[in-house]
Amino acid sequence: MNKTFKVIFSKTRGALVAVNEAAKTTSRASVKTAVAGVCAALLSVPAMAAEFADDYCKDGVNCVVADKTVEGTGSVVRLDKKDGIQSITIKNSTISNTPFELRGSQNISVSDTVFTGLASGKSSSFAIFAHKGDKTVDVTNETATKVELNNVTFKDNTVSYGSLFVYDKTKLHMKGGEFVKNVTTDIGGGAMIKSGTIVFEDVLFQDNVARNKSGFVAGGAVYVDITTSIKQNGANAVGDVTFKLTKDMAYTGNRIDSPFEGKENTWGWSAYASGGFLFLDRSSKGAFDIADGVTLTIGTASATGEDDSIASALPNTKEQDPGYSTLVKKGAGTVVMYGSMDKYFGDFTVEAGTFDVRKAWKSLGNTAVTGGVLSASNGITLDTMTAGTNPKFTQSGKLTVSG
Question: Rounded to whole angstroms, how far apart are CA atoms 373 and 15?
Answer without folding.
Answer: 54
